[in-house]
Amino acid sequence: MTAAAAFAGRVDDATLRQIGDHIAEVEAELRVLVGSRVALVETIGAHTLQAGGKRLRPAFVWLAAKSIGRPFDPARARRLGACMEMIHMATLIHDDVIDDAATRRGQPTASAVHGSTAAILSGDVLLSRAMSVLAEDGDLDVIRRVSRAVVDLAEGEVRELEIRGRVDLSYEEHAEILRMKTASFIECCCRVGARIAGASEAEEVALGTFGHHVGMAFQLVDDLLDYRGDHAKTGKPAATDYHEGCATLPLIALWPHLGEDERARISAGFGQADAIAYVPEIIALMEARGAFREAEQAAADAITQAKDALTVLPATSARELLAAAADFVVARQS
Ligand code: FPP
Ligand code: MG
After folding, report:
1. What is the structure's pLDDT at 278?
2. Residue 68's pLDDT is what?
3. According to the model, what pLDDT value does residue 17 have?
4. Strand partners, 108
5. Which of 54, 163, 218, 332 counts the highest number of beta carbons within 10 A?
6. Global pTM exceeds 0.90
7. Whose CA is nearest to atom 17 of ligand 1?
8. Distance, CA 62 to ligand 2 centroid (Å)?
9. 14: burial class by Cβ within 10 Å (0-12, 13-18, 19+)?
């Protein structure tokens, strides 16, 4: 399901058509941007693009711009939205190499089809192309913001690597990883949208706060779906975080509610790719001891904070769409 489809019933048909049209234009822009004179780069770009995605990041750039209520250049919103999606595509291609993931969105990953080296290098091309789009756009403030968010993304991923294998993470340590690897970039998309529409400082801060909390909720839900999602819908195998030794909130919240024996059993399989036998027991414990409930509550609280931040903005259909996008992030099944 794309971001556009999630808004049905929340706003009038004309606004719905507008966002649908905008996302279709972003999609066309992306098809041009992933083109390359090197056939393998083009193949991997097209493969990643046709695997689909919610296109949430370009939707946030556009909705944030719209929510300011002043005229802005729609071509710029489209191009910068495509740029943000291309950075996101590059990070996922790299992430699938790091995670040794065979499938994403129900389709084989670029690395599974073309090998890790080709996938890494093609991801590098997409990232570099996105940077050249930013340079052509020429707004130093946008370039500065996006570069910082990309540093956050990469450092977040390295931090996650550093803590691999640790089951005893504090919520604060974990939240900082979520901020770096996911929330910072969504915050950036919202701030970029605000900026191109000439937002005031207060409006830009409000949209940044909204994006931060939506990003936190997005990753919390992603981590919940990893354990208890319908894997036919997520298109990813179950409990990859456990097999990779990556402690996310369901496991962190479960830990204080476990006895010695349970902890020993769960630790034994943590970080083992073939420890499939432990997974049903862990999922049952997460359900029974309230760990899923705690993670759900954290995501719901983040969405409440995101929506609260929007009250600074004028009451427009774009603001309603931003709130609908926030709800979609927690309700999504894939
Ligand atoms: C998905 O997390 C991964 C990210 C949100 C960030 C990935 C970042 C990098 C690989 C480093 C930076 C790369 C570039 C090109 C700048 P996940 O593994 O928890 O989610 P998943 O379930 O979707 O795989
Ligand atoms: Mg991953």
Report:
1. 82
2. 96
3. 85
4. 103
5. 218
6. yes
7. 95
8. 27
9. exposed
Other Cβ atoms closer than 10 A to 172: 7
Residue type, 281: E
* Residues 87/129, Cβ–Cβ less than 8 Å: no
What local confidence, expressed as pLDDT, does residue 44 receive?
Answer: 96
Please tell me the distance from the alpha carbon of residue 47 to that of residue 44, in angstroms, as a whole number: 5
Answer whether 111 contacts ligand 1 (Cβ < 6 A): no
Whole-number Å distance between alpha carbons of 162 and 228: 26
Instruction: Quote the pLDDT of residue 66.
Output: 94
Ligand 1, from 91, 126, 240: best to mutate by most atoms within 8 Å of Cβ? 91
Query: What's the per-residue H, E or C state across the chain?
Result: CCCHHHHCCCCCHHHHHHHHHHHHHHHHHHHHHCCCCCHHHHHHHHHHHHCCCCCHHHHHHHHHHHHCCCCCCHHHHHHHHHHHHHHHHHHHHHHHHHCCCCEECCEECHHHHHCHHHHHHHHHHHHHHHHHHHHHHCCHHHHHHHHHHHHHHHHHHHHHHHCCCCCCCCHHHHHHHHHHHHHHHHHHHHHHHHHHCCCCHHHHHHHHHHHHHHHHHHHHHHHHHHHHCCHHHHCCCCCHHHHCCCCCHHHHHHHHHCCHHHHHHHHHHCCCCCCHHHHHHHHHHHHHCCHHHHHHHHHHHHHHHHHHHHHHCCCCHHHHHHHHHHHHHHHCCC
Please list, residue by residue across 23-40, b when 16 or more beta carbons sit within 10 angstroms of its beta carbon and e when fewer do.
bebbbebbeebbebeeee
Please report the pLDDT score of residue 52 as a whole number: 83
Q: What is the pLDDT of residue 3?
A: 60
- The hierarchical CATH code for the domain 3-331 is 1.10.600.10
pLDDT at 2 (0 to 100):
61
Which residues in the chain show pLDDT less than 50? none
Residue whose token pair is 């779906």: 225
What confidence score (pLDDT) does residue 1 get?
57
Ramachandran region, residue 300 (left: φ > 0; alpha: ψ -120 to 50; beta: rest): alpha
Residues 6+ apart with CB under 8 A from 260: none
